[in-house]
Design goal:
By secondary structure, the chain is an alpha+beta fold. The chain is built from 2 helices and 2 strands; from the N terminus they run ββαα.
């Protein structure tokens, strides 16, 4: 596991001090964090269902 990763309430998060150089940090409560995580899971579930009916074949060898 990468350094400065915190496991809080069973969820992984990067230490805010490490991210401060890249992104302006905001304080959010646990309910908002849970809402964001839930929304991301809903989106990923939709993507999996939406594209589950098709399998994209890998490109052929060069010269085919």
């Amino acid at each position: 596991m990468a350094e400065d990763v915190i496991i809080r309430y069973g969820k992984y998060e990067v230490d805010a001090r490490r991210m401060a150089d890249y992104v302006r940090q905001q304080q959010i409560n646990e309910a908002e964090r849970d809402r964001i995580i839930h929304s991301r899971h809903m989106y990923l579930d939709w993507m999996h269902r939406h594209f589950a009916g098709r399998v994209i074949q890998p490109p052929g060898e060069a010269g085919e």
